[in-house]
Every structure is written in C-alpha cells, then in structure tokens.
Design brief:
- 45% of the residues lie in helices and 22% in strands.
- It is built from 19 helices and 25 strands.
- It has a five-stranded antiparallel sheet with strand order 10-9-13-12-11, with helices on both faces.
Amino acid sequence: MKLGVLLWRQRVIIVVLLIGFGLSLAAFFSAQWQFERQRQLEFTWVANNRISLLHQELMVAINTLQLIVDVVDAQSIDQPQILQPLISRQLERNPRLGMITILGENGITLRLPNEPKAPLPASAAPFSPKAETEHWLYTQCQPGKPMAVSERIAHDRNKWGETLYGVLILLPLSPKTTHAKCVVGLLELDAIAHIAISHLEPRGVDLIIDDVTLPTTLQPLEFYSSRLNPDQPMEETLWQQRLQQAPLKLSKSLLFGDRQWRITAISSNLFVSAEAFSSGAWIILAAGVILTLMVAIYLLHMRLQMRQRLGVIQQLHEREELFWQMTETVDDFFWAMPQTADHFLYVSPAFETLWGYSCETLYHHFSLFTETMHKDDVERWQEALQQALKSAGSVEVLYRILPKNGGQRWIRDSIFAVRDEKMSVVRLVGVAEDVTERKQAEDTLQESEQKLRTLFNQSPDTIMTINRSGKILLINRGAALEGGSDLSRPGTATELLPAQSHDEFNRQLQRAFQQARVTHFAYRQQDGSWREIRMVPIQEAEQVTAMMVIATDITEKRNLEAQAIRNARLASIGVLATGVAHEINNPNNAIHNGAALFVRIWQDTLPILREFQRDNGDFSLGGLSFSKEGESIRELVNEIVANSRRIEAIVANLKHLGRDSYEEPRVAVDINQIILAAERVIASTIRKHTDHWKLQLAPDLPPLQGNPQQLEQVMINLIMNALQALPDRNSGVRISTRLESKIQGEEAALLIEVEDDGEGIEAEDLPRVTEPFFTTRL
C-alpha cells in the first residue's frame, strides 16, 4: 500500500527516469552503430590504399622484366652477356627483384656474370631449381606463350630466421632470338610488400597474398604484418586463424600472369580508427535521465562532426590522390625547398625527363641545378629566389638549361613562398615548364616581324592604310610622299597630297570602297615631279574595311616615256630625210647630167663661135656680149656642175643619217673628212647660231678604223650641243684635230676637241654626260 502510493507520488520522476533511460539506451546503441560504421569506412579506405599500392609495385617489377624483353627483342641480342650492364643497373634500382636471368633452349640457364642480391638456398635458386620447378621452366619457356608465374619458392631468411618467399616470373622472348628464349625474374614478395606499404603511415592492417589458382593450399604466398605490431616474428601457420578472427577484412582478386591471386587486408587488434570517441556512448548511458537532452544534442553535434570529418578525410584523400597524379604524370617540374634555399625538399619525376639526371642525384647534389643552368642565367634565377622570399605573389623567371643528353632548353619557372599564420616564409615552391618550342616560335615570329618591318619602312614607295574617311591608320617612311610632310604625326592622306589633287583622291577613294577593286591615278607635284597613287582594298569577311594606298615616284618613268617619244620622232625624221634625199637626188641627177653635157657642148662650140666672131664681129648670147662674157660662161656651167655635186653630197649625208648604222662595216676613216661632212650637213644651222665658226684640222692625220655614219652622227651631235649652248651670235665654236703621242696610256691617239663659248656644264651634271637620254634642256 505504502509502496504503491510512493510509486504513484513519484510517477512523474519514474516516467522521466524511464524516458531518460530509454533515450540514453537508444543514444548508446546509435553511437555504437556510428562508431562501427566509421571504423568500417576507414578500414575500407586504408585497405584499398594498401592493396592498390601493392598491385602497383607488382606492375613496376613486371615492367622492369618487360623492359629486358623489349631490349632483347628490339636488338635481337643472341649473346645475353651483353645485357649484363642493363640487368645489373635494373637490379640496383629495383629492390623488388632478387634476380634476373636469361633462359636458353629447353629452359637451361645461360651464363651471365651476375649473381642475385642475396644468396639463395640451393633447393630454390633458379640456377639450380628443383625438379618440379625445372619442369615448369622447361614447359613454360616456349615462344608465343604468355607471361607465366610459378608457385612460391624460398629465397632467403629474415633476422628472425623466417624463410622469405617469392615467385618466378617468366616472360618468353621473340622467336627470332636464336639462343635466348625467356627472361626469368625472382619477385621478392616480402620486399614488394614493404616497399608498397612504406609509402603509407602505419594503421594496424595486415596483408595476406594467396594463390587461388591452386585447388588447395595451406600456406599463403606472403603474409605482411602491420608495423604497429611488436617487433617479433609471426608464425605463418596462424594466418588462417587470424583471417577467421579478424573483425574487419577486405579481399580483392587480380590476374597475375597465368595465375589468379587474392590480396586480403585484415584489421589487427591495433587497427587505428576513430575509436577514441567510443567511450562517448558509455558516458551517454551513465549521464542519466537528467542529461538525456544534452546527450541527444551532443550526439547530434557529434554526428555532424563525424560526417564533416568523413567529408574532410574524403577530400583530403582526393586531393592527395590528385596531387600525386599531377606531380607524377604531368610534364611540368614541381619542386620545393626550405627558405634557406640550400637544398631541395621535393623534386617531381619530370626533372628526369627535362634535365636527364635522376631525382636522387639532385637531392644529394644541390649544386647540380645551377651547374646545368646557362652561366648567364644563374644570377637571374638566384635573384628570383630572393625576390620570391620578399614578394607576396609568384615570381616568374626564364632561364636556359643544358640537359645531360646535349642541346639547350628554355625553362619558365614560377616561384612563390609558402607562409605560416605569422606570414613567415616556411618554404619556397616552384613549377618549371619547358617553353623551348614556344620561345623558338616567339623568336622566329619576332625575326620575321622585324624583317617585314624593315622591308616595309625601307620601301622607296609610301605605303599606308586608311579608313573610309581618309584617316591614316598605318604608314611607313617611304620617300614618295614626304616632300616636307610630317610623317611622325600623320592625320589624313590628303594632307600629304597637293591641294589640286584632293578632289581626285577622294573620288578615287570612294570608288575603290564602293567597287572593291584596285584604282589608280597620277598627278604632278609643284616641283614638276610625277606621282602615281594606287588604292588596293583590304577585305575582311567579304567587306572592305580599309584601303592600302601605295604612292610611287614615276618621274623617271615619265621622262623615259617622253624621251622615247622624242627618239621616235627623230627616227621618223631620219626616215623622212632618207625619203626626201631620194626625191631630191632624181632632179639633181638630171641637172648634173645636163650640166656635164652642156660643158662638153660648150667646149665643142666655143671654137666655132670664136671663128664666127672674127669673121662677123662681136655678137650677144642670151643678152650678154660674147667678147665680154664668153669665157665666163664656161665657169658658170662648171659652177652648176659643182653645186650639183654639192647637192649630191648633202643628199648622201642625209641618206647616211637615216641609215641603220649596224649595217655599215668598219672601214678606214679620215676624221677630217668626217668633220667636213658634218659641217656641210648642218651648215645652215651653223650660220644661224654663230658668226665665229672656226676649223683647225691638222693635215696628214692617219686614218682610223670605224663606222663613218656613227662618227658623223657623233660630230653632228657635238656641234649641235655646242651651238645650242651659245648665248648669242657673237660667241663662237672651235673644232680642232691633232695627233697626240700618248693619251691615258694609249700610243698615237687622235684627239678631237669641240670648244664653245657657252655657259658650260654644271659640276653635278658632269658624271652624267654619257648617260643615255640625260639632258638639261627640259
């Protein structure tokens, strides 16, 4: 009765206690479940890491053996002793392999001057295999078969006296090798496991490797005990017991040659997990009803923290994996060094690719980095390091390196300092990139651009690009339009042209933009020179966006065209003179023949007329007294004959003037007669220009070999130039000839001098007196 009342009175407390206790139990079991789930997740992650690394190390060993196979197959090496240096180097660099050897025909080991790294028991060494191993080698060492893996064999003992095991890897060679048939390597499973797991921190996870290809086996291939276990040997016979009793385990199968292996990760009693928080569940249970709400809040908060921690761990794992892949696979070279900059803390494998030296060499010899750098760039790189220590951002430096295999490469290094919360420099890190091809392309582009700029600026023509309104966008330093214009500050194209050409330029510019075709026009400068403007449309996306204007000085071209016209006129005059000469020659021949006939008639008639005068006295002929003019009539007729011959000579000279000189042969020429003939041709011109014409021709000059017509044309031109240079008729022209004993080293030369009283030739024009078509008369 009293107990019932007491319980009834305390019913609220009992209800609270029951609720609190129930909630505490629920929270306790919930926490236990969360801890176990966290433990399972962490174990799965740790086990996957160890299994992946173990598999990776197995592949490294297989790749090393495959390298030996590739070398033998590629070079068809029939003498395995040649491979000794390569095999020795691979054994030194790869502790995963205890031995590499070459098998000949029927599985017989070929002699190689190398020994395994550790002495092998005679019963298990490949050099003296057991019967079943020898039979296996003989069976598998056949061309065309795939890689084969043996059962485990003993090869050494550890410090506790335990036997260490391994497997033989057999890779057949190409059938083309006559003596060597297979490459055999001893894979030390214990060394592989230690190398793989040494990259990770100890977490209390053991590894078991067994061969599931065999129908039954009592022993695994390898049993790896966690480094957290006491430093004592582990009995190999207990592995099945450990496997059955392990609370956490994870197995993965992999195909290794012709065998299927299984790698099993099991947790030991020292497996490191989030068990430090497992006591929280007991605290929750002991807290009671009063702390139920606080425990619930704590559990909620703890659950959130655990989820966040799982996320952080996952992100950390992903970032670690990403960083690992990035630094190990990308072509860029990553490095890190302390703030003292006296050694490297980390060097990525890309260093070996770029420099040709191993990373270990750089770790031990820091000076190798500057020794392989171009001597002119060492100081710049060291200055960049000092600048990075002071700068808050990254510092880029470009330098050249001299790789081991020769040549030269350009490297762009981005250096930045890693600082702690006090902004103190902790270390320097850098990313080096090979920019050799980019640097060469930039140098080539710069050189090409420089050549193009030189050609553009040194062009004698003015080249510019303008827009539709005539504004100059780009212009060179050509001389065609300079003429006093300020090209350093160009405005519009019309500012470079004369005012009278502005309208035509604008009209042609608009026409070129509208019709999208090349236009051109020519104009004359105030100084008399000529310019030609060509406008070439510049199209982009089928639209004319700008116009290239090319201004060329065509003054010389115009002068040559005018000279060609004058030469054509002279040629026409020569042809005309030849035709006129033929027309004059016909009546002159009649006059000459008639006069000659009349002379003979007069000579025959004169005695009869004289006799008639004596008999009849004086009489007249044509109104003239015979006694007074009879004798002079013959002289008159002779003068008619002489003038006829003179006309004939003038006509002959005109014909020579119009004749093609290249048809005339070189003959003996009297230079005095050439001068006299030229005088007769232009006698009227001489009388027109001067009253003081004088010839001083030396007598008895020897003849010379030449073309009479060409020499006569030369004399006519010289005389005409002298006459045209005279200021008035009171000035004179003098021509003289003489024989000189020596002129300019030549013996017995004829000298012809044409001298006039004109103003002479300007000093700057003297070098051009023999230049074709040059004249100052324009």
